[in-house]
């Protein structure tokens, strides 16, 4: 009995803690967080991932706002249904009233929903506009969906020549890298990839998205980004990640048998680290990743000792 209770309580507690941690991370972002973030799905999490961009913070706010509207409506309808069931069933109320019109109520149940919809539409359209209109970008990365991997290309003249494909690490690859010194936490299963997209923090990154075979979808939950990758078309989106860290997303359009195995990894680094990486990556991405691992280790020696930047280091070997 006791054991069963614990089993039930445990997932609930984890959901609650997930939500709390999510909230705390959002607050930390607004302040001066120096701890590198890693945004990824958590077991038993129910809320949205912690926001790493302004757009995602707005999505959080909009989601909470609509919740404040939905919950009272559901509660009201449930209470009204309860009253009808108890007071107006055939046994309790054998001779029903023959009322069929009430002008006041009819006006109210037409006007109130309209006002509620307008109240939802205004912040909703504002948010859609913010997501869709790409501000002047500091950097452009083109992501191409393949069955089943992502290809990345830095299309600005300043970064000409940087391109690589990014495949999910298989269980064997993970085991090899962990044996070679990378921490398990730095290689989340089904999310870690062999090559990360590297971008600078606090800079506007335009992402151009396309595909060569079927429709994929480029999605990064912590950034509030999701855009279809369609063969023959070039879609656009953008993000400005506020804090260095590693962020995980996935293809979000059913695209074939390995749809679940084409993760997206974006490593957000400081300006100086990005400049050094980009310079080296024009010649050789492996060398650039090795250099970046060294820079991250220098900046945060403790994290490096724990193998947090391990994926880069080991990948570069
Ligand atoms: Cu896909």
TrEMBL record:
Residues 40-135 form the Cytochrome oxidase subunit II transmembrane region profile domain. Signal peptide: none annotated. The keyword Translocase applies. Belongs to the cytochrome c oxidase subunit 2 family. Subunits I and II form the functional core of the enzyme complex. Electrons originating in cytochrome c are transferred via heme a and Cu(A) to the binuclear center formed by heme a3 and Cu(B). GO terms for biological process: ATP synthesis coupled electron transport. It comes from Breoghania corrubedonensis. Residues 136-280 form the Cytochrome oxidase subunit II copper A binding domain. This is Cytochrome c oxidase subunit 2. Its cofactor is Cu cation. It is a multi-pass membrane protein. GO terms for cellular component: plasma membrane. Its EC number is 7.1.1.9. It is found in: Cell membrane; Membrane.
């Amino acid at each position: 009995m006791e054991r069963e209770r614990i089993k039930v309580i445990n997932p609930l507690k984890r959901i609650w803690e997930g939500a709390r941690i999510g909230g705390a991370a959002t607050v930390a972002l607004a302040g001066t967080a120096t701890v590198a973030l890693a945004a990824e799905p958590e077991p038993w999490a129910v809320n949205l991932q912690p926001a790493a961009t302004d757009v995602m913070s707005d999505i959080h706010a909009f989601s909470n706002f609509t919740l404040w509207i939905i919950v009272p409506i559901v509660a009201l309808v449930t209470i009204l249904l309860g009253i009808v069931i108890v007071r107006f069933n055939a046994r309790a109320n054998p001779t029903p009233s023959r009322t069929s019109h009430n002008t006041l109520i009819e006006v109210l149940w037409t006007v109130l929903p309209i006002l509620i919809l307008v109240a939802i539409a205004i912040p909703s359209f504002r948010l859609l506009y913010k997501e869709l209109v790409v501000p002047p970008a500091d950097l452009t990365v083109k992501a191409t969906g393949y069955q089943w991997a992502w290809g990345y290309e830095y299309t600005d003249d300043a970064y000409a020549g940087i391109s690589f494909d990014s495949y999910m690490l298989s269980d064997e690859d993970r085991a090899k890298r962990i044996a070679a010194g990378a921490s398990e936490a730095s290689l989340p299963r089904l999310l870690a990839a062999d090559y990360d997209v590297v971008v600078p923090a606090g800079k506007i990154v335009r992402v151009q998205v396309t595909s060569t075979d079927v429709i994929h979808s480029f999605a990064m939950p912590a950034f509030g980004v999701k855009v279809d990758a369609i063969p023959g078309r070039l879609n656009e989106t953008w993000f400005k990640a506020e804090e260095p860290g590693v962020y995980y997303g996935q293809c979000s359009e059913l695209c074939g048998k390995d749809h679940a195995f084409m993760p997206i990894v974006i490593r957000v680094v400081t300006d100086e680290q990005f400049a050094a990486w980009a310079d080296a990556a024009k010649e050789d991405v492996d060398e650039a990743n090795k250099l970046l691992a060294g820079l991250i280790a220098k900046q945060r020696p403790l994290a490096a000792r724990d193998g947090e930047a391990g994926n880069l280091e080991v990948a570069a070997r």
